[in-house]
């Protein structure tokens, strides 16, 4: 796996440091919420980020799972967003935080945001580990962003290519000849 990585973009120690910083910001935002927070991770890419993030949050929370798909097989550009598993929790009148691995073109996050807003939450915010600044739509602004990155194809720390590399502990740039 290591030979497939062209370079390390964000090393694991910097990722964990930034996750703790994000958790502090989220804590400041939600600490006074008496009912706690409902966290909605977008699976499967956010699972490692989510696990590290929630261990840093010192308040009550529930996790409501959603699975969406935009990439099929070895595709590197997204297709139509398809809801695979819908949220089973009632979020009406509750504070909700969407957690995703990456904001790229915004298709997935826009679909999830619109889908959840129709359920009338008290508030809906977005937390992403990575944002590709050149591609992220201007009308979709996350409330919490781990890192802004260039438009490169990244894997590791939950991000994959064709189902592989999610377990790579750093965020790395995949060698282009592997996906071109």
From the 3D coordinates, which CATH architecture would you assign? 3-Layer(aba) Sandwich
Radius of gyration (CA) equals 16 Å
CATH class: Alpha Beta
**Helix/strand-derived class?**
alpha/beta
Please give the number of β-strands: 10
CATH topology assignment: Rossmann fold
Largest sheet: 7 strands, mixed
N-to-C order of helices and strands = EHEHEEEEHEEEE
- Enumerate how many helices there are, as a single number: 3
- Low-confidence segments: none
Whole-Å distance between the termini?
Answer: 17 Å
Q: How much is the average pLDDT?
A: 87
Shape: globular
- In total, the number of domains comes to 1
Helix-residue proportion: 10-25%
Q: What do these coordinates show?
A:
The chain is an alpha/beta fold. It has one domain (12-151): Rossmann fold (3-Layer(aba) Sandwich), CATH 3.40.50. It contains 3 helices and 10 strands. The protein has helices spanning 12-30, 47-54, 107-117; strands at residues 5-10, 37-43, 61-63, 66-69, 82-85, 95-103, 123-132, 144-149, 154-155, 171-174. The strands form 2 sheets. Strands 2, 3, 4, 5, 6, 7 and 8 form a 7-stranded mixed beta sheet that branches. Helix 1 (12-30) crosses helix 2 (47-54). The longest helix is centred in the first third of the chain and has 19 residues, at 12-30.
């Amino acid at each position: 796996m290591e030979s497939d990585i062209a370079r390390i973009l964000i090393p694991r120690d910097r990722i964990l440091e930034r996750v703790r910083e994000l958790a502090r910001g989220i804590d400041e935002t939600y600490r006074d919420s008496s009912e706690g927070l409902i966290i909605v991770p977008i699976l499967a890419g956010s699972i490692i980020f989510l696990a590290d993030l929630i261990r840093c949050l010192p308040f009550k929370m529930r996790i409501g799972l959603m699975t969406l798909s935009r990439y099929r097989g070895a595709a590197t550009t997204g297709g139509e967003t398809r809801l695979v598993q819908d949220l089973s929790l009632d979020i009406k009148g509750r504070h909700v935080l969407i957690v995703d691995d990456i904001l790229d073109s915004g298709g997935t996050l826009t679909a999830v945001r619109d889908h959840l807003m129709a359920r009338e939450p008290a508030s809906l915010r977005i937390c992403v580990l990575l944002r590709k600044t050149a591609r992220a739509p201007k009308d979709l602004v996350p409330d919490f962003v781990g890192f802004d990155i260039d438009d490169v194809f990244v894997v590791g720390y939950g991000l994959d290519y064709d189902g592989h590399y999610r377990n790579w502990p750093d965020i790395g740039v995949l060698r282009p000849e592997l996906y071109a």
